[in-house]
Amino acid sequence: MIKKKIVFAGPPDVGKTTIKEAFFEHASPISLLENPLEPSRGINSSIYSAFNSDLGLFDLAGQENNIWFSNKGKKVFNESNIIICVFDIRNSLESIIQFLLSIYKLKKELHLHSCKIIAFLHKIDLRSNSYVNQKLKIIQDFITIQHPQGKDFKIFKTSITIDYFYKTYYIISEILNVIYERNLISVNHKEFQKLKKELSILLNSDVNLKYNITDLVHKFKFNSEDLKKHMERLENLGFIEIFDEYQFKLTDSAYYFKVGLEKEFATTDESHFNKNIEVFHIFLFFKEKKA
Asked: Contact, 147 vs 104, CB < 8 A?
């Protein structure tokens, strides 16, 4: 079986595990914001199956970076497809750049020629847009211009707060698209129509209410078998919670996703919005493999 690998690395307390929990484990972003996770220890890893391959997701504790950069510990980066370096917007420019340089040095030492280095400038809600954009540009320019291996380096603004959740979801989906060569897994017309119907359910549901699943048969003109499949897909995405097989409600993740999607719907043309409709398609295929 083909294997893919993503490694999350970065300083302590930047939100690596929170990102993993919010976007891969479907944890409530509200709960994560109100009750921050305890610092990770060691390697927090999960394996997902998708597209006849396994994806290993490795979250490295920032408190143990001295281990990960040691001769013995750096083996954890072997065979990585992507290394995502996560930084808190409040981390100093010097510390961010030094960490990235250490990652590029490690990439060279381990001969990770095809591995892509990506950075998340995280918790951007804690600073002004002008501050965030200026900091991002300085980091981007330094790595791409002054580092010989940095020509493909990309850095993104991320946060799990309601104003940025959808955009971060989109960024992560695009990273997965790169790993799985998404152009080879196109969304056909039939699948696209399914996505539109499922997004219609999200856009026309209130996060504070419970809904009778059978009511959707009339509202959206579904037959009962198709409706069951739509519900299963939305549940797999962590967007709905089903009660007693007859009622459902939106999750916090769905609500945050919906707010961002509605903004896109209001501000973009149809072709761009169609791209947004496809954004969560790749997550439908991810299933965590239990030990």
From this structure: yes
Residue 257: pLDDT band by 50, 70, 90 thresholds?
Answer: very high
Longest Cα–Cα distance in the chain: 62
- Residue 1: the pLDDT is 55
Check which CATH number belongs to the domain holding 241 and give it.
1.10.10.10
Same structural domain for residues 156 and 230? no
One domain, residues 28 and 108? yes
Question: What one-letter code names the amino acid at 39?
Answer: P
Residue 84 banded pLDDT, cuts 50, 70, 90: very high
The parent domain of residue 97 ranges over 2-183
What per-residue confidence (pLDDT) applies to 137?
96
Measure the CA–CA gap between 138 and 132, rounded to whole angstroms.
10
Assess contact for 237 and 247: CB atoms under 8 A.
no
What are the phi and psi torsion angles at 62 (to 5°)?
-65, -25
**83 and 60 within one domain:** yes
Using CA atoms, how far apart are residues 6 and 156, in angstroms rounded to an integer? 16
Quick one: CA dihedral 243, 246, 252, 254, positive or negative? positive
For 250, other C-beta atoms within 10 Å of its C-beta total 23
Written as six digits, the tokens of 228 are: 């069951």
- Higher local confidence (pLDDT), 183 or 207: 207
Is the separation of the CB atoms in 256 and 165 below 8 Å? yes
Could you tell me the pLDDT band of residue 289, with boundaries at 50, 70 and 90?
confident
